[in-house]
Amino acid sequence: MKEAVILAGGEGWRLKPATWVPKPLLKINKQTLIDHQIGWLQNHGFENIIIASDRGDLTKRPITYSLEKNILGTGGATRKAFNQIQGDVAYVMNVDDIVFYDPNELFDYAGKGAGILLAKPTLPFGMVTLQNGINVIRFQHRSTLDFYVNVGHYVFKRAVVEKYFPEKGDLEFTTMQRLADKKMLQGYTYHGMWFILNTMKDLIQVRTFFKS
Which pTM was predicted? Predict the structure, then answer.
């Protein structure tokens, strides 16, 4: 059985005051963000899906919650959510990172204990090349940068989570670096579209994409 954890504790502070809706409940494509992500996982064969959050009213779907009474951070929330995972490995993802690929590709990639989805980011500004420090000789709009960043989708084995994840603390910096130091973290490169919902501009872009 394929299992997954959705980290859905974000309040979406950078979207305020344009909207006061918690980030998982933002409406896209006639459904909420959390329902979109649940449906995406289910369409790819994931059956046991755990929502890690501080609230248990994010969806009407028959989903299991891992509730936080206190803020645990992404690392602590993942560790706690694994108490609801029945097997030895689970797909873990941020609710606000929307990608377009088969998550089973990454699920089958965590041979050393942990896998992370990576992508090359697009610069949101026009990149300018200067000659002699003065003359503009090239202007590139939305250039793709030549390095990889974390897409917010992972796969972890239970043994790794139990040994290296904190009871309370972050996932993205401290925990991931510990796994990298132990040579346990494998990167899987992704070259498709990637939306992250941080600002109202991001939300409008996502809504426009799915509407079209």
Answer: 0.89
> SS3 string of 29-94?
CCEEHHHHHHHHHHHCCEEEEEEEECCCCCCCCCCEEEECCCCCHHHHHHHHHHHHCCCCEEEEEE
Between residues 136 and 20, which one has the greater pLDDT? Answer: 136
pLDDT score for 128: 78
Report, as an integer, the average pLDDT of 156-163.
95
Give the count of beta carbons closer than 10 Å to the beta carbon of residue 104. 14
Q: What is the pLDDT of residue 18?
A: 46
**DSSP states of 92-105 as a string?**
EEETTEEE-S-THH
pLDDT tens string 60-95: 998 999 998 888 889 999 999 999 999 999 999 999
* The domain made up of 2-211 is a member of CATH 3.40.30.10: no
Helix (H, G, I), strand (E, B) or coil at 173: helix
Could you tell me which of 74, 51, 75 has the C-alpha nearest to residue 62?
51
Of how many residues is the chain composed? Answer: 212
